[in-house]
Design goal:
It is a single chain. This protein is an alpha+beta fold. Among the domains are: 4-119, no CATH class; 247-262 and 274-304; 307-380, Uncharacterised protein family Atu4866 (Lipocalin). 62% of the residues lie in helices and 12% in strands. It has an 8-stranded antiparallel barrel. Helix 7 packs across helix 9 (213-243).
Length: 382
């Protein structure tokens, strides 16, 4: 406006010689509109400015269409398009006619839909090229997650997801087939059985159950048959392992682990699993009897040394099985708090059990077969 004030609008020579500011078409268009407003009634000035307005209007619209058409097929471009029309209306205002707004709105809509379509096609292409190895399903999961945030329509995402799931199913079928082909690589030994179990676990984890029903049934049937063959061949070795277990607390823990492992053999046949469970349980019971006798002797010695028979040899546990106190002898107590174990000492005073631990002293009141202290009630395991 300062530029306009430098010349009389009725002075054609002044208008003719006045330099036009170097502005983008949209800015220059606004400048021309303001000039029209102050041009007075001189038809010569008005005609010149109107022609200038028409030229700049076309340039501005061409530039805006170019900005829209030049956007790449990305989620960022979709966000730009969402803001495009409000931004243009704010910046240009009266410089745009209703026809301009309609034209830009149509262009934005067409570009928006074309980008959505491009994102959809790109996602399908990435899914198609995700590979066929065990990690391909995880890659497709990431593609689908990114596509869900890509600004496409629900229907488009639904179609991409269906394509991805079908692709994952095909990948899973291939992974199961390749895994089945390796079954004969494992020997009929306990090491072979354990390696075979690891093979089954990692295979199923890699596909996450995403395979056709027929492929899963075929894989599970083949796995059961091969697991049974390996287990039967390894049974003598398993019994030798059991016989070699020490008849101690450590040996008892190992026997329990072997028993739990045999119980969990859901891929072996029932009769094979039963044989292993029976062998492990028999050896576990043998060791447990010896350990129980040793514990009883240890407990008796502790009682004779002054230990309380209501405490020595017993474990006290809270209702949530998170905290335990195990009284080993007349002096030693083992703390077990959420799996963390540490040692302490205890002594009796009237009806209280005073426990000295690494974090200080705790006093538990005795109440029948329970101990109460620190807001906890620990009950004796019978």
């Amino acid at each position: 406006m300062a530029l306009l004030g430098a010349a009389d609008p009725s002075d054609m020579n002044a208008w003719r010689n006045m330099p036009m500011p170097k502005l983008r078409p949209s800015r220059a268009l606004l400048h021309t509109l303001r000039s029209l407003e102050v041009s007075g009634k001189d038809p010569r000035v008005a005609t010149k400015l109107a022609a200038r307005r028409e030229t700049l209007h076309k340039a501005a619209m061409t530039r805006l269409r170019g900005e829209i058409d030049g956007l790449d097929s990305s989620t960022r471009s979709l966000r730009i398009l969402q803001r495009k029309l409000p931004t243009v209306q704010r910046d240009l205002g009266a410089a745009l006619t209703p026809e301009d707004i309609a034209e830009l709105s149509t262009a934005i809509g067409e570009k928006y839909r074309s980008i959505q379509l491009a994102i959809t096609r790109r996602a399908r292409d990435m899914i198609e090229r995700a590979g066929n190895d065990a990690a391909a399903s995880q890659r497709i999961d990431k593609i689908l997650a990114n596509t869900a945030r890509g600004g496409i329509t629900r229907q488009q995402y639904k179609e991409v997801r269906a394509f991805g799931l079908e692709r994952q199913k095909d990948i899973g079928d291939g992974v199961l087939e390749a895994a089945t082909a390796k079954f004969d690589d494992y020997p009929g030994t306990m090491a072979g059985v354990r390696q075979f179990e690891d093979h089954l676990r990692t295979t199923m984890e890699s596909i996450g159950g995403r395979a056709s029903r027929s492929a899963l049934v075929s894989f599970n049937d083949a796995a059961r048959d091969r697991h049974t063959e390996l287990a039967r061949a390894a049974l003598p070795e398993f019994k030798r392992e059991l016989a070699a277990l020490p008849e101690t607390e450590t040996g008892l823990e190992e026997a329990e682990e072997k028993l739990d492992t045999a119980k969990g053999w859901d891929t072996a046949t029932e009769d094979t699993r039963t044989v292993y469970v029976a062998a492990a349980r028999e050896r576990r019971d043998e060791i447990a009897a010896i350990v129980a006798e040793a514990r009883a002797e240890e407990r008796q010695r502790a009682i004779e040394a002054g230990g309380d028979p209501e405490l020595v040899g017993y474990t006290f546990t809270d209702a949530n099985s998170l905290s335990r106190l195990e009284f080993r002898d007349e002096r030693l107590v083992i703390f077990n708090v959420m799996g963390l174990r540490f040692a302490g000492e205890y002594q009796l005073s009237r009806n209280d059990v005073i426990v000295e631990g690494p974090n200080g002293t705790v006093v538990f009141a005795r109440n029948g077969n329970s101990l109460q202290g620190m807001g906890l009630t620990l009950t004796r395991d019978e």
